[in-house]
Amino acid sequence: MDQLLALLPYEFVQNAIAAGFVIAIVSGVVSGFVVARNMSFAVHALAELGFTGSAGFLLLHLSPVLGLLFGSAVTAVFIGTLGVRERGRDVVVGVVMAFGLGLGVLFITLYKGYANQAFAILFGTITGVSRGDVLLLTAIGAVTLIALAAIYRPLVFATVDPEVAEARGVPVGALAVVFLLIMAAAVAEAIQVVGVLLILTLLITPGAAAERVTPRPGLAIVYSVAIALLCTLGGILLSLTTNAPVSVFVTSLSFACYLLARFAIGPRRRELRAQPVRAEPSSAVAPKVPKAG
Fold first, then answer.
1. Which of 159, 247, 240 has its CA nearest to residue 200?
2. How many domains does the chain divide into?
3. Which of 10, 30, 230, 283 has the fewest CB atoms lying closer than 10 Å?
């Protein structure tokens, strides 16, 4: 604890905590929809091809972080356009991801310098973010949350029952593309904490745990954000006191939260809902019925 208190005045620690706070909120909100819409594989593809964008921008001597955002956004448009339906979406994701990873290998091979920045994206660099990075993450997070709030009601409708929503005139295809772009922004932010290889931690686990706790979409988002905040900020603070990678603690805390929700809280909630409601005994005295004849 003393070591942690001694580190708090340093700017890099404050930047890491601020960035982790923003990333956790965005990831927690998006995570619930990722789980509800069965888009875990798409998250993985966005992260992998975001790395391809980073490698390509590095080859052009541009910012790999902007390349990450660009690669994820382009991938989101491809997946959303080609694989709107859930049945064919995984096939499209696999095809696009395989092609993108091949390009990423080509970009890294062609780059003649040290690709430390691109490889750092694989594992996360939350303790290395600058004040400018925090402002950029905050701006991206604000735009992401505003966009999600704008489509929240039709998105929930299309998530729960896409056929009925489409019959009612909801633009299911356009919503799928927009949500994938929102996911791309969330992926670009979450990678700053856990990296490409562990992106599923913040974009899936909080939502999966919250789903086990409550069936209500709004309340599930609140729980998902709380879990993401606990895991992200807890991982950063534990990393500062032990000098171990942040991703190790974030993934461990996330896994523990999921196990707790699945095997402790979830079954207990189902038991309480299954219990019959007992009628309270009446305090009034029943009137006497006069005897006949």
1. 247
2. 1
3. 283
